[in-house]
Design brief:
Helix content is 64%, strand content 0%. With 153 residues, it is mostly helical. It has one domain. Helix 2 crosses helix 5. The protein is elongated, with a radius of gyration of 15 Å. The mean pLDDT is 94.
Length: 153
């Protein structure tokens, strides 16, 4: 939430250089973005206000396709509180799946759904992990709900 994830960037680059792959940072960054976006999907599916619903769908697209999570974090998921639980649950479930299936990034790339090719021969593993992260995050967020009064309009 404070940008401290940039502190590990040198380690990510080093992992790609030697031993030539990254099983920790790239998968976790990617799965966080998917979970953040799908928490917005969960909020959008439950929201009653049409303008807010449209905003949440837009933010979800931004997280998943563009990798831009700050508007979702600070505009929806933190202010509403409960969606952050969905983010954590989705990212954790996706991370466990990625780890068990051996998702490995071989190239330094972005943290969007469009970065799937950086996983080369482990694409299936990351695709399954992405699906798990998205489904769990959206479902947990939808089930937990949120207080409509917390929407800042």
């Amino acid at each position: 939430m404070t940008g401290m994830h940039h502190a590990v960037t040198p380690f990510m680059v080093q992992a790609i250089a030697d031993p030539g792959y990254d099983r920790l940072f790239r998968p976790s960054y990617l799965l966080h973005n998917m979970a953040e976006g799908s928490a917005c999907l969960g909020v959008a599916l439950r929201a009653k206000d049409k303008a807010f619903k449209a905003e949440c769908f837009s933010l979800a697209f931004g997280c998943i396709v563009a990798g831009v999570t700050e508007p979702a974090i600070y505009g929806v998921n933190l202010p509403l509180k409960k969606p952050i639980i969905g983010v954590v649950a989705g990212a954790a479930a996706g991370g466990v799946t990625a780890g068990l299936m051996g998702a490995t990034a071989y190239v330094y790339g972005y943290s969007t759904i469009l970065a799937v090719p950086i996983f080369q021969q482990t694409i299936l593993a990351i695709v399954v992990a992405i699906a798990v992260a998205i489904i769990v995050s959206a479902a947990v967020t939808f089930v937990l709900g949120f207080d409509e009064a917390d929407i800042n309009r």
